[in-house]
Fold this sequence. Notes:
Rossmann fold, 42% helix, alpha/beta, globular
Amino acid sequence: MKRFALLGEPLGHSLSPLLHKAIYRQLEIDDASYRTVELAEDRLKAFFSGFRVGGFDGVNVTVPHKANVIPLLDEVDPKAQLLNAVNTVHRIDNRLIGHNTDLLGFAYSLSSNEVSIAGGEFAIIGAGGSAQAVGAVFAEGEAKQVSILNRTPERAETLKRLIQEVNPAVKVELVDAQGLAKRAKYLDCVVNTTSVGMAPNSKETPLESAICEQLFSPETVAFDLVYNPLKTAFLAAAEKQGAPTINGLQMLVAQAVHSVEIWMGGNIVAHVDMNSLVRDLEKAIK
Ligand code: ATR
């Protein structure tokens, strides 16, 4: 039996066990289990000692431990190192190797919605851990320009530095909401990476409706990393202007499938029906 788990705190409403079990079902893997392990930071070290000697075959890591686990690993892939964030750990014999599949999940969701990055212009709302993964994908994909809107300017500066470290050719601007609205006609996609609008605060939006009216059109995609509710107030405001919308569910599914591929090997990403997994999760959220 292969054993996998999600580490974090709190994990009360996590969809990951349901999602991973649905992936195993699709792949007809019947000798794998996936559970949540709620863990405070002071218990991480002891957990990893047990993990290393065979307690688990792999773990996913979520808030607040994506950076905390790094000193406990033997190897960290360069992208996870750059973001200082590991969301997937694979045990090979007694070595623990860290990866970041959030980037792969975001890149998958963009490409499956036919949003191409090269030469495009993008905006990121927020500048935390998720924003760094999004920014790194835009930089790697050779975006022409990225605008960052964040409440705390210092964190926006840090994100700007990260994007330019990945790809110095990307032009990065820090903007306020008015400044963002001025880029409207050039923007291919605006991504909300903050948790503003997540249930139970689903009436909140990261941008005022007057700004959304100026910003969105059928030419500018709205992407919200939030998936509960499925249609956030931000996506609803964009949709009102005729904008195509993407919620965070496909990214959640794709990062999980990429984790399973790291753990199990083989070409799992190409063989899984991502849309059917998204539908399974939609039913659980509705
Ligand atoms: P995650 O890993 O999900 O990205 P995080 O690292 O805590 O979480 O980052 C959350 C981001 O959302 C931050 O950029 C935060 O803004 P600050 O840098 O100013 O803290 C942003 N954010 C969270 N709540 C917000 C709110 N109510 N209004 C505006 N921005 C918010």
